[in-house]
Amino acid sequence: MREADLTRLGVILSDRGSRYAVSGAPVRSRAEIDAQLAALKSDRSYAKATHNTWAARLSATGALKADDGESGAGMVILRMLERAGLEDHLVIVTRWYGGKKLGGDRFRRVQDAVRAYLDQTGLSDG
């Protein structure tokens, strides 16, 4: 697994001061997920982000996800991957907190970020 496999779309939206970025890569194991997360966090701005939430559906072992403090966000990403029928691919949504709580809107922003990733990378089913 190479860092070159990691697609970073950068900051794609903001809401009340919070900024969201989305990244992703093909993966086939937990070790490859960890390597891609490390590659992303080698960029200091991503390492200092408030949350790097992620999910992946691995054909060999099933679904994996992590909220990184943004409770429920990993499941939002995972459900979108399931709907898209996407396996062996990691999607990471990064949030830099802007000082105002977003409530349930934070899940809509995560969905917006994942949708943008799937659309811009040609991985969406629609």
What does this structure look like?
By secondary structure, the protein is α+β, with helices and mostly antiparallel strands. It is built from four helices and five strands. It has a five-stranded antiparallel beta sheet, with helices on both faces. The longest helix is centred in the C-terminal third of the chain and has 16 residues, at 105-120. The model has no long low-confidence stretch (mean pLDDT 91).
Write the layout of secondary structure elements.
Blueprint lengths: L6 E9 L2 E9 L3 H12 L2 H4 L3 E8 L3 E5 L6 H12 L4 E8 L8 H16 L6
Antiparallel strand pairs: 1-2, 2-5, 3-4, 3-5
**How many β strands by DSSP?**
5
- Uncertain segments are none
- Give the helix proportion (percent range): 25-40%
Helical stretch tally: 4
How much beta, percentage-wise?
Answer: 25-35%
Computed structural class? alpha+beta
Cα(first) to Cα(last) distance is 28 Å
| Cα Rg | 13 Å
Helix/strand order, N-terminal first? EEHHEEHEH
Mean of the pLDDT scores? 91
Strand order of the largest sheet: 1-2-5-3-4
Judging from the principal axes of the Cα atoms, what is the shape? globular
Largest sheet: 5 strands, antiparallel
